[in-house]
Amino acid sequence: xxxxxxxxxxxxxxxxxxxxxxxxxxxxxxxxxxxxxxxxxxxxxxxxxxxxxxxxxxxxxxxxxxxxxxxxxxxxxxxxxxxxxxxxxxxxxxxxxxxxxxxxxxxxxxxxxxxxxxxxxxxxxxxxxxxxxxxxxxxxxxxxxxxxxxxxxxxxxxxxxxxxxxxxxxxxxxxxxxxxxxxxxxxxxxxxxxxxxxxxxxxxxxxxxxxxxxxxxxxxxxxxxxxxxxxxxxxxxxxxxxxxxxxxxxxxxxxxxxxxxxxxxxxxxxxxxxxxxxxxxxxxxxxxxxxxxxxxxxxxxxxxxxxxxxxxxxxxxxxxxxxxxxxxxxxxxxxxxxxxxxxxxxxxxxxxxxxxxxxxxxx
Length: 363
Description:
This protein has helices at about 45-50, 75-80, 100-110, 115-130, 145-155, 175-190, 200-205, 225-230, 235-240, 255-270, 290-300, 310-320, 325-330, and strands at about 5-15, 20-30, 35, 60-65, 65-70, 85, 160-165, 195-200, 210-215, 220-225, 250, 255. The protein is an alpha/beta fold. It has a domain at about 1-85 and about 160-250 and about 280-340: P-loop containing nucleotide triphosphate hydrolases (Rossmann fold), CATH 3.40.50.
């Protein structure tokens, strides 16, 4: 069974007189990877905190398993939070605890499992993210990328049905970001949980998610399957996803009307839509991601409602990605895992690999 659906309806949040966003409505499809984008300061992290009940919106609803998190009592909210795993921007590890104890913390806090059971779970999750052998290290003794992976392992120990990622790529170089993106998709293939990622990385937004949403000027500009947004003619969505200067978004989010009009005229001179980048696939040996077929069916059902240029680009993308060579090209390198069971997950990293980064050396 896929992860649970999260239905957000008419959500509004303010701090005093400062409105963060209003009337946000979307549904996170069960078992799929969704990305939330937007210029800095548009309230993306606030949205994540609202989803798990750390912040209380003034209006709207967040429904999971027929329960509204905005209006339920504290005991019910406490139980529903166990459905979530959260990877915070900096990992949010306890500095005085080693990695093993950091990752074991949710199990000791929320379950009655024995220490031997906890050890089995912790070691499995550390192995999944490539941290086996680093159990006794303190957060201050490891790199930022390793801290993020430790935070991800901790988010996984309760086998959550919904996993939230708050800018997992912040502070990482492009290579580590690529490895982390592959790891996220591989985890989705293994768990079929519902993922929501907040990111600024355009390559991540173009190649990782099944669905893309964008916050802009205190509203949700658009949310839907990746193919629909990557071919959208909405000026805000198109500008952001293509990383262009030309468009309505300026340095301070809002841009002078005359300047925006001049830049949009430049955009209009460009010919056609850019090609849709292929989506990453799970590493060879892992289950095929069930989310892909579910998303593609939704896209085909709504294809006739899209502009002709978008329809053509999406059809071409489906045809290219269905070819065996395209699928092989889209498969990224196995990121971190070194399983003892070769039938379970990812290829083992050889002893010649650099133990300080857990990444294979270039030969």
